[in-house]
Amino acid sequence: xxxxxxxxxxxxxxxxxxxxxxxxxxxxxxxxQSNGNGAVGSGCPVTVAQKQPIEPYTGIxxxxxxxxxxxxxxxxxxxxxxxARDSSGRTYRENQPEMxxxxxxxxxxxxxxxxxxxxNHVTINWNSNSKEATVxxxxxxxxxxxxxxxxxxxxxxxxxxxxxTVMGSVxxxxxxAPPVRPVRRVLEDLGTKTINGVEAKGxxxxxxxxxxxxxxxxPLTVTHETWMSSELRILVLQIDSDPRTxxxxxxxxxxxxxxxxxSLFQPPEGYTIKDRYPGQQN
Length: 282
Hints:
Number of domains: 1
Shape: globular
Strand content: 35-45%
Oligomer: single chain
Mean pLDDT: 75
Largest sheet: 12 strands, mixed
CATH superfamily: Lipoprotein localisation LolA/LolB/LppX
CATH topology: outer membrane lipoprotein receptor (LolB), chain A
CATH class: Mainly Beta
Radius of gyration: 23 Å
Number of strands: 14
CATH architecture: Clam
Helix content: 10-25%
């Protein structure tokens, strides 16, 4: 019992560390996927290596989520954020946390700011509720993987169940595993179109989850549609439709080409600067 608790604890810690440290666990993947200037998720792109000229821009990213309940009730959530990138690869983002309608009357609304600066190898965070900005000095190239590799499971043999069995049911019953129904995925090329003045290339991934795979008595169809600008190398539109959670749309609007105001990439005047370095304790 003590051994199993120890193994579970170490595994939980390792998982928590990796998932909470994107700068460590994801830096190599970002470097490979971005080709120097690629977009990460639906936010500002992260620049790793300057291989091609970077197109500067400023825009407003709007996100809406619509969920329809079984009784016909519709729940809507909306949020907006401002983002920018200059020709040196610095990115800026400001946003407010998504809140339920009416919650702002009870909870103070803060604006959060994030700057990624590959020129000075720092990231900067601050918010509208304090007068302090934190400057995180990034590790040198090659250190991230070495630090992440330190976290490893102990050399403990863990008993494994026989193939084709299911363990840990509510009654502690071990028995034959149910047949696994395959999930079907189809990728479509949607061609190109102009979105808010920017030409973008679209793709749609359709996933069909068969009945019984997720406790569903009928097949579920989930779609993930993205429209990417090859010139700006950013995501300009994303539509996710899932009958379990609703439809979530993220769109980059009010796109302005050209260099953004350089003051965006620095904390406001009067803010106290707090420096943080790799390995430094809180």
